[in-house]
Specification:
The chain is α/β, with parallel strands linked by helices. It has 20 helices and 18 strands. It is globular and about 90 Å long. The N and C termini lie far apart (61 Å).
Length: 448
C-alpha cells in the first residue's frame, strides 16, 4: 500500500467517490462525514494524509487542523470552495500542506496527494537520520566517559572547543585511542551539530585525488571531469570537516590547506571563483608533527594554524581504571547482536584486561572483546577466552620481571606478527592499528 488517507467530507457522493478512487490507486482510504468522526479516526489510526473539507456539519475543518499540526501528525490538504480563499490562506498558516478549490479535478488532486506523500516520506527519512545522529552523538560521548582524571580533563576540553564554533582543533594521540570519537563529540556538542560532519583520511589517497576530494573541480578541469563537482570544504559548509592522518598530506597540498584556514575560501580545480565556506576544520595525527617539521615533511606555519586548540587523547595504558567501564560497554554492544546470549567477565579476566598494555589502545580492546563475544557460548568469560598474549593472573603478574613499556610493546607486536605467520594485514587488524603504523614499528625493530 502507498499510504493511509483520511477523507473528511460531508457530501456523501463526493466522499465515496474519493474513497473508491484512492483505493484503486492502492491507498488505504478511510472517511468521515463529521468533525467528531474525523477526530476519532485520527486517534484510532496513523494517517499519512488528511483531505479536509472546511465546512462540516459540526464545526470548521480549521479546528481539526489546529489539533494535528505538530511534525508527527499527518499532512493536511484543505478542500475549499473558490470564494473562501482567505480561509485557505488561514489554513496554510496553521500548517496545511496545500489546498485545492472545489469543484476540483481528480488528476489535479492526485498530483497534490503524490507530492504530499513524497514530502511525508522525506520528512520520515530526515527524522530517522536525526535519530541516528543523536544515537551516534550519545555513543561517542559515552565511549569517552571514564573515572580517570585524564578523561575528565579531556571531556572538559571537548566541551570548551565545541562552544567555540569555528576554532580549528588538532587531535593528537596514538593509533586506536579514539581520536575520531573526539571529533564526533566536538561536532555533536557544538552549535554545528545539525550541519554535516564529513571525514577523509589524508593517507588513503594520492595527493591529486585528495586535492580533488577536498576542493572539487569544474567541468573540463581535466580529462574525465564531465561535470562540476563540489569538494568536501563546500559540502561541509555550516558543519565540520575532519582531516585524519594530516601528517601524511603532501607539502604542496599543505600550502593550499593553509590558504583555506587563513581566509576560509576555496577555489575548485580548473576554476577561478573564490568560494567562501563556513566550516570548522579538525585535524588528527598519531605522528610527532614537530619532528615532521624538522625533517621538512610538514609546514611549520600550517602546524600553528592547526594547533589553535590541541587535544591529546591518552593511550589506554595511561588510564587503566577506565578499562572495566569500556570493556563492559563493548560487551553490552556486541551482545545486542546475540539477544539469546548472556556473558560477563570473570574477576581474573577483568584483571587481565586492566594489566594488558594495549599497544592498539581502545581499538584493540574492542576487537578483543568482539572476538571473545563471538566465540563464547555464554556465561563467564575467562582469561583464556580473551586470547591475550602474556595474559596472566594477578599472582603471576606480581612476580614478573619489570621491563620498559617500549619493550613490552615490541614483544607483543612481534609475537602477534609471528602468530599470524608474518601477515601484516592480519597483525594490524588484531592489534587495532593501521598497516602504516605496523610497518613503521617493524622497521624500527629490524623485522620489516
Amino acid at each position: 500500500m502507498r499510504g493511509r488517507i483520511l477523507i473528511v467530507e460531508d457530501e456523501e457522493m463526493l466522499r465515496e467517490s474519493l474513497v473508491d478512487f484512492f483505493q484503486q490507486e492502492n491507498y488505504i482510504a478511510l472517511s468521515s462525514a463529521t468533525l467528531s468522526g474525523a477526530r476519532k479516526e485520527v486517534q484510532r489510526h496513523d494517517f499519512d494524509l488528511v483531505i479536509l473539507d472546511m465546512k462540516l456539519p459540526d464545526g470548521s475543518g480549521l479546528d481539526l487542523l489546529a489539533e494535528i499540526s505538530d511534525p508527527q501528525s499527518p499532512l493536511v490538504i484543505v478542500a475549499t470552495a473558490f470564494p473562501e480563499v482567505q480561509t485557505a490562506v488561514k489554513a496554510l498558516k496553521l500548517g496545511a500542506f496545500d489546498y485545492i478549490n472545489k469543484p476540483f479535478d481528480l488528476d489535479e488532486l492526485q498530483l497534490i496527494v503524490e507530492r504530499a506523500m513524497d514530502t511525508r516520506q522525506l520528512r520520515g527519512e530526515v527524522n530517522s537520520f536525526r535519530q541516528r545522529e543523536k544515537q551516534r552523538s550519545k555513543r561517542s560521548w559515552t565511549r569517552l566517559e571514564g573515572e580517570s582524571n585524564i578523561l575528565r580533563k579531556m571531556r572538559q576540553e571537548i566541551l570548551l572547543v565545541a562552544k567555540a564554533g569555528t576554532t580549528t582543533t588538532l587531535i593528537l594521540g596514538e593509533s586506536g585511542v579514539g581520536k575520531e570519537l573526539v571529533v564526533e563529540a566536538i561536532h555533536y556538542q557544538s552549535a554545528r551539530h545539525e550541519g554535516p560532519l564529513l571525514k577523509i583520511n589524508c593517507a588513503a589517497l594520492p595527493a591529486t585525488l585528495l586535492e580533488n576530494e577536498l576542493f572539487g573541480h569544474e567541468k573540463g578541469a581535466y580529462t574525465g571531469a564531465n561535470s562540476r563537482q563540489k569538494g568536501l570544504f563546500e559540502l561541509a559548509d555550516h558543519g565540520t570537516l575532519f582531516l585524519d592522518e594530516i601528517a601524511e598530506m603532501e607539502p604542496g597540498l599543505q600550502a593550499k590547506l593553509l590558504r583555506v584556514l587563513e581566509d576560509m575560501t576555496v577555489t575548485r580545480i580548473g576554476g577561478q571563483q573564490l568560494i567562501h565556506v563556513d566550516v570548522r576544520i579538525v585535524a588528527a595525527t598519531n605522528r610527532d608533527l614537530r619532528e615532521r617539521i624538522e625533517t621538512g615533511l610538514f609546514r611549520e606555519d600550517l602546524f600553528y594554524r592547526l594547533n589553535v586548540f590541541p587535544i591529546l587523547v591518552p593511550p589506554l595504558r595511561e588510564h587503566p581504571e577506565d578499562i572495566p567501564l569500556l570493556a563492559n560497554l563493548f560487551l553490552k554492544e556486541f551482545l545486542l547482536h546475540s539477544p539469546d546470549k548472556s556473558c560477563e567477565f570473570s574477576t581474573i579476566a577483568m584483571e587481565c584486561l586492566r594489566k594488558h598494555q594495549w599497544p592498539g589502545n581502545v581499538r584493540e580492546l574492542k576487537n578483543v572483546i568482539e572476538r571473545a563475544t563471538l566465540l563464547h557460548s555464554g556465561g563467564v568469560i575467562s582469561p583464556d577466552d580473551l586470547a591475550l598474549i602474556g595474559c596472566c593472573s594477578g599472582a603471576k603478574a606480581a612476580t614478573e620481571k619489570m621491563v620498559p613499556l617500549s619493550e613490552v610493546e615490541k614483544n607483543h607486536i612481534l609475537a602477534v606478527y609471528k602468530k599470524t605467520d608474518y601477515n601484516k594485514t592480519r597483525t594490524a587488524d588484531i592489534l587495532g592499528i593501521n598497516r602504516l603504523t605496523l610497518r613503521r614499528k617493524l622497521k624500527e625493530y629490524g623485522d620489516s
